[in-house]
Amino acid sequence: MAQCVQSVQEFIQDSFVPLVAALCSEEAERLTRRNNLSFAELVRPFCRLTSEVHMRDPNNQLHIIKNLKIAVNNIITHPPQPGAIRKLLHDVVSVSQPAEGLVANVITAGDYDLNISATTPWFESYRECFLQSMPASDHEFLNHYVACMLVVSSSEPDPVEQFLKLSQEQHRIQHSSEYSYPKWFIPNTLKYYVLLHDVSTGEEQRADSIYEEMKQRYGTQGCYLLKINSRVSNRGADEQIPDPWSQYLQKSTIQNQDSYEDYTVVSNKNTDHLISDGIDNEIKDGLSNNFKTHPLQLDHPSGSLDSTDYMKASTSLQDSKKSNSGTPHGACLTLTDHDRIRQFIQEFTFRGLLPHIEKTIRQLNDQLISRKGLSRSLFTATKKWFSGSKVPEKSINELKNTSGLLYPPEAPELQIRKMADLCFLVQHYELAYSCYHTAKKDFLNDQAMLYAAGALEMAAVSAFLQPGAPRPYPAHYMETAIQTYRDICKNMVLAERCVLLSAEILKSQSKYSEAAALLIRLTSEDSDLRSALLLEQAAHCFINMKSPMVRKFAFHMILAGHRFSKAGQKKHALRCYCQAMQVYKGKGWSLAEDHINFTIGRQSFTLRQLDNAVSAFRHILINDSKQPPAQQGAFLREYLYVYKNATQLSPDGPLPQLPLPYINSSATRVFFGHDRRPAEGEKQAATHVSLDQEYDSESSQQWKELEEQVVSVINKGTIPPNFQPTQFCLNRYSDNSKFPLAVVEEPITVEVSFRNPLKVPLLLTDLSLLWKFQPKDFSAKHDGETKGQGTCDEDMVGTEAIAEFLINSEETKVARLKLFPHQTGELHILGVVYNLGSVQGAVSLDGIDPSIGLQAGKFVSNGLSVRGRQDLEIQGPRLNNTKEEKTSIKYGPDRRLDPIITEEMPLLEVFFINFPTGLLCGEIRKAYVEFVNVSKCPLTALKVVSKHPEFFTFGGNTAVLTPLSPSASENCSAYKTVVTDPTSVRTALLSSASSADFGVGTGGSPEVIQVPLPDAVLLPGASVQLPMWLRGPDEEGVHEINFLFYYESIKKHSKMCHRVLRHTAVICTSRSLHIRATVCRSNALGDEEGRGDNMLLFVDVENINTSETGVKEFHIVQVSSNSKHWKLQKSVNISGDKDTKLASRERAKLCFKAVRCKNSEENYTFADIVFGNEQIISSASPCADFFFQSLSSEYKRTHVQSHTHASQRAVKQSFDEIVRLIQRCSEVDLNIVILWKAYVVEDSKQLILEGQHHIALNTIGKEAFSFPQKQGFKKILGNSDWEDLEQELPETVLLKFFRPENTPVPARPTPEQLSNLIKTSLHYPESFNHSFHQKSLCLVPVTLLLSNCSQAVVDVMIDLRHKPTSSEALEIHGSFTWLGQTQYKLQLKGQEVYSLQLKACFVHTGVYNLGTPRVFAKLVDQVTLFETSQQNSMPALIIINNI
Known about the structure:
Blueprint: H1 8-15, E1 19-24, H2 26-33, H3 39-43, E2 53-56, E3 62-65, E4 71-74, H4 82-95, E5 105-109, E6 112-116, H5 121-132, E7 145-153, H6 159-175, E8 190-198, H7 204-218, E9 223-228, H8 246-255, H9 260-273, H10 281-286, H11 289-292, H12 308-313, H13 315-325, H14 335-372, H15 376-386, H16 396-400, H17 412-425, H18 429-445, H19 449-465, H20 475-488, H21 492-508, H22 512-521, H23 528-543, H24 550-566, H25 570-584, H26 590-606, H27 610-622, H28 629-649, E10 662-663, E11 669-672, E12 683-685, H29 697-714, E13 729-730, E14 741-743, E15 748-755, E16 762-775, E17 797-799, E18 802-807, E19 812-821, E20 825-839, E21 861-871, H30 883-887, E22 900-902, E23 908-913, E24 918-920, E25 923-933, E26 939-945, E27 952-953, E28 977-979, E29 989-994, E30 1008-1010, E31 1017-1018, E32 1023-1031, E33 1037-1049, E34 1058-1070, E35 1073-1081, E36 1094-1103, E37 1111-1123, E38 1126-1131, E39 1140-1143, E40 1147-1156, E41 1163-1170, E42 1174-1176, H31 1183-1202, H32 1213-1225, E43 1227-1242, E44 1245-1259, E45 1264-1265, H33 1271-1277, H34 1279-1288, H35 1311-1315, ...
Parallel strand pairs: 1-4, 1-7, 7-8, 8-9, 14-22, 24-34, 47-56
Antiparallel strand pairs: 2-3, 5-6, 10-15, 11-13, 11-15, 12-23, 15-19, 16-18, 16-20, 17-19, 20-21, 20-22, 23-25, 25-32, 25-44, 26-30, 26-31, 26-33, 27-32, 28-42, 29-41, 33-34, 35-36, 35-45, 36-40, 37-39, 37-41, 37-43, 38-40, 43-44, 46-48, 48-52, 49-51, 49-54, 50-52, 53-56, 54-55
Helix pairs in contact: 4-5, 8-13, 14-17, 17-18, 18-19, 19-20, 20-21, 21-22, 22-23, 23-24, 24-25, 25-26, 26-27, 27-28, 33-34
C-alpha cells in the first residue's frame, strides 16, 4: 500500500471516536450562522484535545488517554441512503488528485526507474469518508451517540424553558418508537447544557445570571457558558484571522451537492460524520510538512486547484463550491473566541464526557461481574427457555444464509460488546480485547455470525493497538471476520471496513504480500470504485516489497485504471495507466503498449487533455505496430478525430507536427531547374540531369573535372578561388556544405521520401512545401531588409501543391514538390505541410496500385483529416578532419534546403537531330545540334568540353573548309568530295592545311571546343542549328560520352558566373576494319626528282566485322597521308583493280611509295591516293578534324609518358643534339588516313556508310596499328585466334602493379639507331651474258651507293671480304670475288650520297647474291663501329649466263 499521512494507530483511533449529538435552538443556530457555520461546524476544528486525559478503569487503575478526538454532529433522524453514500464517496475520490508540483518518488527496481506517487490522498480521503459515513448498526456500538449537547442562546426570553424543551425533544428522539435513528449508546445519555452568548449584541450580566441559575439546576459539570462573536464588524479589514474551518467544510460541500428534497436529512448526517481532524493550530504546527499538503486541506479559501476539471463536469458541485469558497467563515470570531471554543470542548470532555463514560464502564462491569456469579450453563439454559425475542436454534447451513441471531438490547452478550466498545473508544485496548474475546466466544456459541464477526474484527484491532504488543496481531481473526461478512452475512460494507483496517495493519508490519492478497480478494463486480482503489493499493504493495514486483505492480495498475474508468473516475484511470506505462514502455510488449496508449489517449480526450491524447495516439502509430490492419485503421481514425478537436481549440496557433507518414529526411533530394523536355521526333533533347537518374559518384566527379577544365581554360589556366562546381541535384552523397545557387523564375523541386509504417493507406491532400524567404538584392552593394516567414506570400515564392497523394500500406513513396522563386534572396525550405487523412474502406485498398490515388477525387477521405506539418531536418556529414573532430562527434552543415536565389541568367537548351545510337568503329556520321536560348538574357561564350574530343567536331574554323550540306556529293557523303578523272593513275593529289584551322596546337586544351555561334551570341528566344560530325570510337562496345556545354551571361553577376548543361551520349560501336601498317626504306636511292629519300609503306587491311550488323562489304576508297615531312607519292599495288573490296574476314595488302616533301614547319601536307571515282578532300572538314583530334590525343598520350624525362634534357646539351640527329634517322613522322565505305543492308534497303581510320607511323620498321590497345596479343595470336580469345576472356582483368622507371635519355645512340645511319644500294644489271669459252673470268661492274641519312658527319668502312657464315650459303649463292680494294674508308657529310665503283669476278654461270659487302658506320668522335642493317634486308641477285 502507499504511504499514508497518518500512522496506522492514528488512523484507527480517528476512525473510531466518541460521538456527541448537538441539539440547538433556533436562536442559537442564528448566532452561529452569523459566521456562516452551524454549531457542529463551529466546534469541529477544536474537537481534538491538546492535552492528556486521565480516567480510572473498573479496577481503579489510572488510565491515560492521549490525543483524544471527539465528533460533534447535528442530530439526523433518517439513516443515510446507500445511493447517497455511493455518490459521496465518488465525489470525495474525484476531487482528490495528486498535487501539481508534487515530486514523485523514483523507485529503482532491476532495469526499471519508476516515477511513482508515494502517497495516495484520494484513497485516504475515500477511506476516511467511508468509515465516517457508515450507518450505525445494532450489532456494534462504536458509532452510537454517547452524549448530547443542548445549545440555547442567552438572548432568548426564557433560556431555561428552552433547555427543557430541547431535553424533552432529545428524550423523544431516543426513546420513542417512531425514531429508529440515530442510535444511542445507553438509555441514560449524558445531556450537556450549553448557553451561547453573543458578546457583540447580548447583555453579559443577563448571560452570567442565567448561567448561575443553570449551574444550580444542572451542576457545574453539566453546563457551560460559551461566549462568541466578540469581533465588531466595522473593525479594520486588514486584520487577518485564521480560518480553520475550510478544510472541514470542503468535505461538507462535496456531500451537500445533492438536491435537498432527496437527501436533506441524509446529507446533514453525512456532514456530521465527516469530522476528520479537529487538530488545532498548535498541534498542526508541530506536524510534518506532508500533513499540511493533505489534498482535502485547503491552503486558501478558493478551493483545491486540482479539482477544477472535475467541477466543470458537475454544475451543482460547482455552484456549491462557489457559494462556499466565496464566503468567509468565522467572520465575527476573534482569536479569543477560538480559545473559548477550544476551552469549551476541553471542559465538556474532562468534566462531562469522560466521567460519564467512566461511570458507564463501571456499571457495565458490575453488571457483568454479578451475572458471572450465576452458573454459566444454567444462565445459558435459562436464556434459551425464556428469551422470547430470540429465534430458535438453526442448523449451520441455515445460519450461513442469514445474518444470524438478533439479541434484545439488554442481552448480556450485548452488554459485554457495549463495554468493549466503550473501552475501545477511550483507548483502553487491553480491557477492550478481553471483552471482545469473551463476546466472540458467546456469539460463536450462539451461531450469531454477524455479531461474532464484529467481535473478531475489533478483537484483532484491539490486540494490535495494545501498548507494548503483549500478543501478536491475530490476522486469522480478521480473515474469519471478512469471510463471514462477505459470504454469510452478504455485507460488503463491513467486509470492506475489515479489509481497510487489516491491510493497513499488515502494511505497518511490512507484510505487503498478505496485504495485497487481502485487497485483491475484496475486488468484485458490485463496486467499481472500491475495486479500483483496492487494486491500486495492491499494486503499491507489490512495488513496496523488499524485492519489488514491478510487472505485478504494472498489471494491477492497469486493472485499477480499468475499474476507475468504469466507475467514471477518468482522471484516476488516466493516472493509473500512465504509471503502468513506465513498466511496459520500450520492453517489446508492443501490443500491451498499444492498449495502454490507446486507453490513455481516450481518457485524456474525455478529460479534454487533448495534447496528452494526441501524444498517446501518436505513440501507437509511430512505433512499428504489430496490430492487424483493421485495428490500425481504428487507431488512425481515433487519432485524427482527437487531433481535429485539438486543432479546433487553437485554430490560429502554429501548425502541429504530424507523426505520419515517416519522412526520411536524409533521402531528400533538391533539383534546381526545369524538367527535361521529352524527345520530339528526330529531335533528342540533351539528357542533362533529372531526379529520375541515380547518383553515381564516379560520373559526378567526371562532370566536376570537366567543369573545372573549361573554367580553367576561360580563366587562362587557373581556377578562381570562389569557384563552386554546378550541382543540379543535391542529395545525401553530394557536397552540401555550401549554399546552393538557384536562379530566379526557375523552379526548385524538392523530392521528399515518405514511408507509411501502417498496414492501412494514408491519404495526404493539399501537400506543399513550407518555407521562409529573405529578399536580398545581390546586384546592389548592400543587402535588402529581411522579411519574415512568407508561407502565403505568392509574390515572392510560388508554391505548387499536390492535391492528393496516396501512400499504400507499408509503402515508401516520393513526392516532388516545387517552388517558383520570383525574387532574389535567401530561401529556407523548412518542411512540408499537408492534410493527413485515411481512405474510406482503407483495409480493402491494400492491393491497389498507389498511382491510382493520384487521380483527382478518386479516393474520398472518410471526412477525418487534419492539417499539420513535418519539418525537414537533415543532419550533415560527420566531421573527421582535425584531432578534435576525430575524438568527438561533430557534424557539419547540410545546406541543400537553403538555396540562394540569384538574379536572372540565360538558359540554354540543346537538341540533337539525327543523332545515331549505333556506329561502326571509325564511321563518320553527320548530325545537327540545335542551341535554343529559352531565357530572357542573351548568352555568350558557348563552349563544349568532353573527355573524348576525337568523337565529334563542329568543323574547321574557316567556312571554306566546312562542307555546306550533306547533298553536296554523291550518296549524301559527309565529306567534301571532288570527282576525279577516271583515267588518272593512282598517284597522290596534294593539298595542305594548318593545324590552327582545326583548333589544334594553339596552346588551348584540346578537350575544350568553341561552339561556332554566329556573332558569338545567342539572343533570348533565338535558336541556331549547327552541323556536327561524329566518328565512331575505335574500340567496339558501348561508349558513354559526356558533353558539358558551358555558357555565360553578357552581364557579369556576383554570385553565378557561368552555367553548364550536361549531355551523355550512349553510342554502341561494332567492329569494322583492322589495319596494320609498316614503313621501311626503299632500296632505290633515287626517286623521280632525283632525291635520295623515299620509303615504302605497306598497309594490311582486314575486315573483322561480324555479319550481325548487316555489313556486306567494305570498299577502301582512298588512302591519304598527312605529315609535315612526308607524303604518299603513288600506289605500287600490282593488282589492277581500281576499287579494293573486302567481304567478311577478307584481308587486303596495299603498298605505297612515300617521299619526303618540302620542309614546312607550319602546314601539314595532305596527299590523297584515290581508289574510287571521287576524291575526298582530306584537308577539309570533317576528315581533317578527326585526323587532328586523333593526332592531339596521340600526342597527349606520348607527351605524358615522356614528360618525366624533361628535367634531364638540359644536361649535355650539345652531345644530346647529335644523339637526337642519329635518332631521327630511324624516325618517321607519317600519318595515314584510310577512308572507306561500307555497304549495309538494313530492312531490305542498301545503305552506304563511310568512315576513316588513322595510323600514326613513328619508327621505321616498326608495325603500327589503327587501334593501339590489346595489340600485343593480336600480333602474337593473329586475328582469328584473337577473336576466339576475346570471347573467352573474363571481364575481370588482373591488375599489375609496377614502379615506373625514371630512365634518362640514353647518352649514346642504340645499335639499332646507329645501324640506320647509312642507307646502301647496289646498282648492277639483273643478268649478264659472258662467253666463258673465250674468257674464263667474268668481270661485272657494280655501283655501291652510300647515303648518309643523318645530319651528322659519319665515318664509313666497307669490307668486301666474303665470309660465308655456312656451307649452305656457299651452295645456294655460289662463290664470287670482289676485285680491287677489299676495304674502303670514307667520311660522309650530313645527307651526302656517295657512289663507289666495284667489280665482281665470276668463274662460271649461275645465280649470285651480290649483297655481301659489309658496311660499318660510326660517328666521327665515336670508337665503336656498327654494321648497317641494310645489306641483309633483301638479296641482290644477279644471273650470269654463258653464251
